[in-house]
Design a protein that fits this description.
The protein is an alpha/beta fold. The chain has one domain: TIM Barrel (Alpha-Beta Barrel), CATH 3.20.20.70. Helices cover 33% and strands 16% of the residues. The protein is built from 3 helices and 4 strands; from the N terminus they run E-H-E-H-E-H-E. It has a 4-stranded parallel beta sheet with strand order 1-2-3-4, covered by helices on one side. It is globular, with a radius of gyration of 16 Å. The N and C termini lie far apart (40 Å).
C-alpha cells in the first residue's frame, strides 16, 4: 500500500498566514531550523522543493499561494509527472453584509483560486468562513 507524502516545501512567514516555526529537519542546521523560507529568495524555495522530492515526497506545497504565484509557476515548470504541486490559500475574511457583498466575495474567491490554478497548482487547499 502506497500512502502519498506531502511536504510543506516552500513555507513563508507571511502577512497572509500566521507566523510559524519551521520544524527541525535533518538537512537543516540549527541556525536555520526554526526559520521559514526567506520571502525574496525564490531559489531557496526551489532548493527545498528539490530536496523534498529527492527524499521521496509525492506532493510538494507552496504556502501561502497568492503572494508566491511566481514560485508556483516555477515549480510547475520543473514538475515531473511523478509528483503533484499543491498550495495553501488563506481564507478571505469578510464581515457580514447583504447579498451584494456576498456575491462580490464569492467572485473574488473564484478569481484568486483561478489565478493559483493558472500559475500551475495541481491542488489548492483552502477554506472560507461561513457566510
Amino acid at each position: 500500500m502506497h500512502l502519498p507524502i506531502m511536504a510543506y516545501s516552500a513555507k513563508f512567514a507571511s502577512a497572509f498566514t500566521a507566523v510559524f516555526a519551521r520544524p527541525p529537519s535533518p538537512r537543516r542546521n540549527s541556525a536555520t531550523a526554526a526559520l521559514p523560507s526567506d520571502p525574496p529568495n525564490g531559489d531557496e524555495a526551489m532548493r527545498e522543493i528539490a530536496l523534498d522530492l529527492a527524499e521521496g515526497a509525492d506532493i510538494v506545497m507552496v504556502k501561502p499561494a497568492l503572494p508566491y504565484l511566481d514560485l508556483i509557476y516555477r515549480a510547475s515548470m520543473n514538475s515531473a509527472s511523478r509528483w503533484r504541486l499543491t498550495t495553501f490559500r488563506a481564507s478571505t475574511r469578510c464581515s457580514g453584509g447583504g447579498p451584494q457583498r456576498v456575491a462580490r466575495r464569492d467572485r473574488a474567491v473564484m478569481e484568486v483560486l483561478t489565478s493559483i490554478q493558472a500559475a500551475g497548482a495541481d491542488m489548492i487547499l483552502t477554506y472560507s468562513p461561513p457566510r
